[in-house]
Amino acid sequence: MDILLIAGLWLDGSAWDDVASALRSLGHRPVPLTLPGQGDGSISATLDDQVAAVLAAVDSASGRPTVVGHSAACTLAWLAADARPDKISTVVLVGGFPATGGKPYADFFELRDGVMPFPGWAPFEGPDSADLDEQARHAMAAAAIPVPAGVATGVVRLTDERRFDVPVVVVCPEFTPAQAKEWINEGDELAKVKHLDFVDIDSGHWPMHTKPAELARLLAAAADAA
């Protein structure tokens, strides 16, 4: 099965290299996406551009793909489910939850010169980055791609209630399944999902870097179940 891999802020498709290799060995076809404005050199890309790129990958996939979103890109995966509810077998959300309709996509940090640069590690101290050593932190910060303002501040628009029919798996890295369930029950978008599962992974916020083989097994299991 095709498994579309959408990395979060400041990352391009290469963030999935180790996961993709493991998925291939498990019999799946990984499709890591490099989004407009996050790896193609453009700073004028918008959220709509990124959504269009994800939908193009869905439309060109073999069969009904599994769509994986990491961190902020959980919203992109969910927007794909909203736009293509009949074409997606399952959505897997790694370390994040989709933004509510009508809200900005990811205006979390200061914008400078039309982009949102990586803010350094201070905002991620604690469980998010506890499993990253100094070498990994330095490499990730050096490779971080500033996110265009048109992406970060783009407004999320959800229109099709059939998205709630698409099965969802929440992969819980720096938080527990119990915490995720509590947050969702407090009124998160996912509270209306009809088929919602939770799986734990003992990692920080970037398991594609620190636990790629384990993450690949979880993604393959979600795809196989679908």
UniProtKB/TrEMBL annotation:
Gene Ontology MF term list: hydrolase activity
Q: Which residue ranges does the record assign to the AB hydrolase-1 domain? A: 3-217
Residues spanning the membrane: none
Q: What single Pfam family name could you report for this chain, choosing any that match?
A: Abhydrolase_6
Q: Which UniProt keywords apply?
A: Hydrolase
Name listed for the protein in its UniProt record: Alpha/beta hydrolase
Q: From what organism does this protein derive?
A: Amycolatopsis acidiphila
